[in-house]
Amino acid sequence: MAYNLLKGKKGIIFGALNEQSIAWKVAQRCHEEGAEIVLTNSPLALRMGELNKLAEECNAPVIPADVTSNEDVTNLITKSMEYFGGGVDFVLHSIGMSVNVRKNIPYTENNYDFTHKGLDISALSFHRVLQTAMKLDAINEWGSVVALTYIAAQRVFPDYNDMADNKAYLESIARNFGYQYGVKKHVRINTVSQSPTRTTAGNGVKGFDGFVNYAEKMSPLGNADANQCADYCVSLFSDLTKMVTMQNLFHDGGFSFTGVTAAVIEQMEK
Ligand SMILES: NC(=O)c1ccc[n+]([C@@H]2O[C@H](COP(=O)([O-])OP(=O)(O)OC[C@H]3O[C@@H](n4cnc5c(N)ncnc54)[C@H](O)[C@@H]3O)[C@@H](O)[C@H]2O)c1
Questions:
Q1: Where are the domains of the chain?
Q2: What residues does ligand 1 touch, defined as CB less than 6 Å away?
Q3: CA of residue 138 to ligand 1 center, whole Å
Q4: pLDDT tens-digit profile of 204-251?
Q5: Residue 126 above 90 pLDDT?
Q6: What spacing in Å lies between the alpha carbon of 121 and ligand 1's midpoint?
Q7: 82 Cα to the center of ligand 1, angstroms
């Protein structure tokens, strides 16, 4: 059901790779709610060609940008402003990648070149996008920026590897840039800490099925899926959440505040 929550709003959505991607669902929901969007992903991801389907569905241009490149991010934001004829009202950062995870290198043996690369893509890119947007004055008054994160930033999930450190850094940027952009232009910046979700990035984590099943049993409401995450992001882009900023917002069915559940105890007693 659509409520026209984003009617007249314009936004940039990073990170839709395929139909499983959380950003894909967010783009669809934003479009349904009346927003105009620009879609972006790395040139490598665009070569897979799937994004064109979404672009057609949402009537959105696709502008490539590798988020580790200042030049690409500047070009993306400049072109988006040209397309919209002005600034944007919301931005979704839905990007994560760890080479250590991909190569199955344990946390205690991380290769630092890979660590740098993962940090650059998964966390510093958020700062780069915000810094570039501020320089170009690309986000309108009371705009809203959301980045996706995971609870491994606060608690240990051993196989999440260096992505845990990347997420801690990402959440810190949301707080610190949130302060600066709030004072300067009433722009709000938050992270959404999502349940484990079956996507390309999610499936890359060792033992991911176990992760998903455990979280399902440990959440009073069960795991939140990608469509529900999209609904939550839409609410954060809307005018109904104008005074929420610098927060890490758990969207996880109650997982983050649950010590144990009857379902887990039952399993342990077997
Ligand atoms: N899937 C989960 O279980 C889960 C849980 C909590 C948070 N998250 C977070 O959600 C976000 C989206 O991930 P997803 O699960 O939808 O997976 P996904 O694989 O669909 O999305 C990750 C995206 O990052 C993009 N990306 C990677 N390198 C890039 C670069 N250099 N420049 C631009 N884009 C680049 C990929 O192309 C892809 O579109 C990530 O931040 C992830 O950490 C995922």
A1: 10-269
A2: 15, 17, 21-23, 41-42, 45, 66-68, 94-97, 121, 148-150, 194, 196-197, 199-202
A3: 23
A4: 888 888 889 999 999 999 999 999 999 999 999 999 999 999 999 999
A5: yes
A6: 10
A7: 27
Say whether pLDDT at 106 is over 90.
Answer: yes
Q: How far lies 134's CA from each of 28, 78, 92, in Å?
A: 27, 12, 15
User: Which amino acid, 237?
Assistant: F
Q: CA-CA distance, 209 to 163, in Å (whole number)? A: 18
> How many residues are listed for the chain in this entry?
270
pLDDT at position 147? 99
Q: Tell me the two tokens of residue 229.
A: 């995450």
- Residue bearing the bigger pLDDT, 253 or 202: 253
- Is residue 189 classed as helix, strand or coil in its secondary structure? strand
Sequence-separated (6 or more) residues with CB below 8 Å from residue 220: 253, 254, 258, 261
Q: Which atom of ligand 1 is nearest to the CA of 20?
A: 20
Measure the CA–CA gap between 32 and 18, rounded to whole angstroms.
18
The enclosing H or E element of 57 equals: helix 51-58
DSSP strand E in 17-157: where? 36-40, 88-93, 139-149
* pLDDT tens figures, 171-190: 999 999 999 999 999 999 99
Residue that is written with structure tokens 């919301």 in the block: 90
From ligand 1's centre to the CA of 201, what distance in Å? 5
Statement: 10-269 belongs to CATH 3.40.50.150: no
